[in-house]
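LAB NOTEBOOK - FOLDING QUEUE
OPERATOR: T.R.
BATCH SIZE: 2
PURPOSE: Compare the predicted C-alpha cell outputs for two unrelated chains run back to back under identical settings.
PRIORITY: normal
REVIEWER: second-year student, initials M.K.

ITEM 1
FIELD SEQUENCE / FIELD STRUCTURE:
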Amino acid sequence: MSAASVELPHGDLPLIAEANRLMDRNPGYRVEIIGGQLLVTPPPDVPHSRALTKLMRPFITAGLDDGGTEVHQGIGLWLPTDAEDYAIPDLAIVDADVDDHLIENNCYDPVCFRLVLEVTSSNWKNDLRTKVTAYAAAMVPVYAIVDRKHQRLHVLTDPDCADYSTHRVHSPGETVTLPDSLGAEVTLDVAEVLAAGRPKRAPDEG
C-alpha cells in the first residue's frame, strides 16, 4: 500500500459501517479492519502503481489469469482474526470461482486465495508485521512483500494459523521462483521489481 496507515476510533458505529463511511468521504483511500482496528491508507503513488503493473505481467504470462485462476488488484479478503476484520491486498491470485465465495462487504473467503502480495511504502511495518499474522491466520498459502524501504523481496509460505513457518528474504541480483501451489511457474527478478517501485529521476538539464 501507499502510505502510513492510521488507527481511528469508531465511536458507536459498527466498524464496517465506519469503514464504509470513511471510504465514501475519502475517495481513493483504502480502509481495512485488522485486529479490530481501522487502518486508513491514502491513494498509492506512481512508483507503487508501477511496481504492481510490473508484477502482474509474469503472473499473466504464466497463464494465471486464465483457466483455474485469476489475477486481481485490490479485492477484499475476509479475515478470521476478529468479527469484522478484512484486508485488501495490493495483488492477489485467486481461484476462478472466487465469485462464489463472497462473504460480506465485497470481501471473499480466504480459501480461494492462492497468493497475496503487498507493495510497501511508509506503512511498511503493517505489511511486514500486522499483515503477516493476519494472512497466516487466514491460511493464505503464499504472502509476498515488495519491501521498498529496505529494498528486499519477502516470500512467506507454510502458514500455521499464527505465522508463516518459512520466510525467505531476497536481495537485488537474485531471481525467485514462487511455489508451485500457484498453479504455474512464476519467476521474479528482484532487482527489476524493486527498481519499478522507485521514483524515476528526471534527466539532467543542460
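ITEM 2
FIELD SEQUENCE / FIELD STRUCTURE:
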Amino acid sequence: MPRAAHQCEARAMTVIEVSGLRKAYGGRAVVDGVSFTVEKGEIFGILGPNGAGKTTTVECVEGLRTPDAGTVRVAGLDPVADHDRLTRVLGAQLQESELQPKITVREALELYAACYPAPADWRELAARLGLTDKLRSRFDKLSGGQKQRLFIALALIGNPRVVVLDELTTGLDPRARRHTWELIEEVRASGVTVLLVTHLMEEAQRLCDRVAVINAGRLVALDTPEGLIARAAHTTVISFSPSPSLGAAELSRLPGVASIREKDGRVVVEGTDETVDAVVPLLALHRVTGHHLRISDATLDDAFLDLTSAGTAAAGTGTGAAEGTAAAGTGTGTAEGTAAAGTGTTRRAGTTAGTGAASAADKETQ
C-alpha cells in the first residue's frame, strides 16, 4: 500500500504518545521536553547526531528508562508501570545485544516463540531473513550481519503491535539491507507500527512516513522526509567543470544561489530550480563549456545537516552526551545515481522490552 494511504488510515489511532519527556543524568538534561505521537501502521523515524538523546528517548518508550518528567504511553500502557503487559505488545531490536554463545539459531527462535501466546511462525521469519541455512549454527559462530538478522526475527516473533528497531540494518550487506527493508514494509502493511532509529538517511527516506529530528535533547523538526528535504537551505546542486574558467562573482548573481565552491577545477553551485534554469544561459553568454554537468536534488542528508549544524557546535561544548562513535554520512543524489552513507552508533541498554534479549549493559551516559 502506498505511503500516503497508510498515513490517511493511521490517523484513526495514536499508538505511541510522548509528551514533555525529560531525562537528565548527573544534573544534565539529555532529553529536554520532547513530544511526538506515532500513529497506527506508521513507520516513524528518529534521527539525530550522536549524543542528541535519541537512545534515551527510545529507551523510555521501551520501558528501559524511567522519565524524570513528562508522560509516555504505548498502546495506552505506561512503559514502566505496565511493563509486563507492554512486553506482550511491543517488540524491540536493540542496537547491541547478546545471547548465550552456544545457543543455536533454531533454539533461540523456538525459545522466544514459547514466551508468547500466539507467536509468529519462526520458520517463516527465518526464511524471510535469510537464516534458514543457519538454524543449526551457534550464536557465537554467526557473523555480525547474521546476528543482526536474528535479533530482528526475535523482535518480530511475538507478533507485536509495535516494534522498535534501532540501527535496523547495521552490518548488513546492500542486498540483505534491501531485503530487510522489504520485510519491514510488509510488517507495516500487516498493521504493525514501527519506531525506527537510524543514521542511514537513505533508509529513513525509503521507509519512514514521518521523521523526528532530535538535537541536543530537543525536538527540532517533525515532518515527512519530503517535507524535511524541502526545508534544506538548498534544494538543487549543480556541478560542472568550466572551460574556460568562470568567475564566482558571475555565478553569485544567479537567482536562488545558496553557496558556491570549487575543488579540483570543478564548480559546485547549491541553489534552487531557478538557479538551474539560469546556469546554462550564463555559460552560453560567457562562451563557457560546462563539462560533465550534473544536476542533483537535495537529500535527507542535506536537510539533516541543516537542521542539526547549529546544535552540533553546542554539543561539542558539553551539551551532547556520548551515544557512540558513528558519524552520520552525507550523500548526494545525482542524475547518474544516488549515494547516501550512514553509520550506526553503539546502543547501550539493559533488557529489551519486547524480546527479553540481554543487551550489553553499562553506565548510561545518553
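REVIEWER COMMENT (ITEM 2): DSSP finds twelve helices and 17 strands in the chain.
FOLLOW-UP: none requested
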